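#struct-pred

JT: dropping the chains for the assembly here, can someone run the whole complex?
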Amino acid sequence: MMRLLPKTNIDFLKYRKVYYTLFALLLVVGIICFFTRGFNMGIDFTGGTMVQVKFEQPVDMGQVRNALTVTGANSELQSFGDNSFAISEKSTSEEVGVVQQRIENALNTLNVPYTVLQTNSVGPAVGANMTERALWSILLSMVFIIIYVAFRFNNILWGLSGVVALFHDLFLMAVAFSITQREIDLVVVAAFLTVAGFSINDTIVIFDRMRENVRLHPKISFGELINLSINETLSRTIITTLTVLFALFVLYFFGGEVINSFAFAMLIGCVSGVYSTIALTTPLVYTWSHGEYHDGGNTASKPAARKQAETATSVGNERNNQRPVVRKRQRRNHR
Amino acid sequence: MSNKLAVKWGLIIAILLGSLYLIYPNYRWYSKPLAEREQLDTLGERPKRMLNLGLDLRGGSSLLLELDVSKLNTSEPLNEAMQRAVEIIRNRIDQYGLAETQITRQGDKWIMVQLPGVSNPQRAEELIGKTAMLEFRIVKNDTTQAQAAIEALEASEKPFDDEGNLLPSIAKLVPAGYQILRTKDGGYSLVTAEATVTGADLDTARVVMMGENGFPEVSFTFKPEGGKKFGQLTGANIGKNLAIVLDNTIQSAPVVNSRITQQGRISGSFTPEEARSLAIVLKAGALPAPVRVIEKKTIGPTLGEDSIKSGLSASAIALVLILLFMAIYYKAAGVIADVALVLNFVFTVAIMSYFSATLTLPGIAGMILSLAMAIDANVLIIERMREEKLLGKPVYEIINLGYDKAWSAIFDSNITTMIVGACLLQFGTGPVKGFAVTLIIGLGVSLFTAVFVTRAIYELILTSNTKEISL
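RK: done, full complex below.
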């Protein structure tokens, strides 16, 4: 049996104050970033026009910029190497196609033959609609995930903390895009969605193990239960993440310019997804349930006795709901 | 082999054969040279059930149109008007002979037109953008009042306000029941406000290349009912000018010499292309309201090719690396997982071909996520089996427990991810939808391949009295 890491016994919960501080820090840095740097939103969202051309002879970037300025085009210029340039103008209220014509006219003054690789003109209403829809779908996904997890794991706190982790991952990706000022286009949105899927997947796997360990080890404290579950699934987490990271690194370096942004977003999101499950989801479940969660009715070792009264109801519910599920599975496992 | 296992394998093999059958047309099609494919496309001989490549992968144009709802006839519900608009645009495009164009509604009042392979959509834009509202009206030029209105109009520097309405000072000169319309050559005419005969009364329209004055013309015939109405109109107005109005512009205003009931011609110094477009749009009917292009994308064929080439080769390398890693790290179990992964890919492509789905870059992202989930499912199972193996259990128990214990995690994570996919499908637009579709298909397939198929493989191995499986 080949093993990347030996059986571990790490106390992940011990550092939860550190995780929370880091999360708070991320929130602060992120919000500052959003306000000071903002995002480089692609024209899919802002509305505007982009023309990407490739000149047949070497052309200097300054020359192209000059041609654009002379004709009064208020454009951004980006070079892709091998004489290929993207010229874009954002949030214009002009008719679709007018700006494109203006840009092409400006390029014509260079008197160097070129081919148009791609153009993209988006009216402002389309961009706004796109943003709104993307946000709605993510928000709605979060609500449904909370409901589903609450239903499958008999506890709304689990679902909530899973969603906090999901939020963390998406937020971190947003911060990364704000800092690097990489353009956010539709492909990047797809990456955000993919990461959302990953992050939840990771959370569910650990929740599943916790659900099982509640039954197998009724006597241990909730903190121990969480640590045990994370340690037991650690090997799987690392292997899965490594495989995905493999793929992403290849895409990042060899995937071409369109895929590059996608891979960049995914790399950050995947690492964040694994981190947030261990550093946010499970510690939050622990903190929010005041360290209480045990199946056998014994008091847990960690929480203060006075907190028991507050949590008695939720613990009772869990116990009642958990039992039948547990029995059913027990039979199935040992048939 | 037990009966149950035989049924399982029968099912797997049947599905595999079915998938290969569905994928085969793709292979045949995409192995043909581009020119031949294009030719077959225009002949309409493209296989129906096949995976299509999105515009971002093969190049082409897309136009997003907005229906001007404010100009809709109030008696027609928006939904019906939209359906009609989509139908009419489809008719126009079909008659123009553009293959595989996709026309879909998006939201309340938007229509997406995707034109694969078209790198300059100008012609298509003209074809689609025309409202093509044809009307026949009678010109009033026999009164001094009419002349006064037109003279005032021509004298004024800016006769219309910003919204295109006539200035009040001129509007008050226009007699009741009449209105002023622009002519094609830049002048103005006073015509009846109401049109009793419209484009809806036409039966067919076609181009006459050499018209009376040497320019191409469009000739048309009426439906029986329309012919009757036109007969009444022309019969009552012999000697007057009949204005042929297209989208509120007078194309020509010939003198009515006799009662006309069957056919007519529209002349107006058209270019051959213009005449052809006009004939198409007249035949296909008028749009319920004007449309406006609010988004236009074109992706040149070279860019599409480049992105697919680098994207595909990188994906292939990534996939091979993953397969190798699994086989090395998990040995026999890893190889079994690899088989499931390959099958996952095959089945997903087969299902997408069956539904003639369109593969886009975000769609590939969805596939990657579902493949990753499939890997994760297998990692979960194998790690569980390892745990049982360390406890020294017999091989059949290792396998059974591995699957039983991993199942709830696999099931729940797949369902939650599918929930995300469903939300995206519901609320997302084009590209996001593409992502969601491949993701949902891939996840469904991965539940089958990563769990059902791999287990069937283990069970098959166990029938030969295997005592150990390397994990």
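JT: nice. Residues 51 and 104 of chain A are 8 Å apart (CA to CA). Chain A touches chain B through 77 residues (CB under 8 Å).
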